[in-house]
Here is the input.
Amino acid sequence: MAQIDLPRPLHEYFAFAELASTRHGRRFTITFPYFEAQRLDRLQWWWQVSTVQERVGGEAGLESLRREAIERFRLHIERWLVTSQKRLFDGNPFPRLGAQGRELVPAVAEQAEPAATSNVVAWPVDRVANA
Here is the structure.
């Protein structure tokens, strides 16, 4: 089962904002809202453009950094879903976060069983391995 089952691409659910500039540069955030059960929650990705990067790259450089931040945030969400064994579905108006289906349970159970020709060495309980 796919971790993301939404009617639109994931990045279309992102909200973008620019925060107050500092002497170090401009700061931005990408927000991904979602429902978990009956609670509205969010993930956020923060990124910054230094004054030097802005001077050198201009608007084209800023847009390139924005695309890179969106891609990194998307990958972060995908990894988060895999490690938490969750999935995104529905998406009207916000995606819903829920547990993955039962398809993963047999695959995990098969991996947990040791093979008959395993190279496991029996170790006496009264011995310490690092002593």
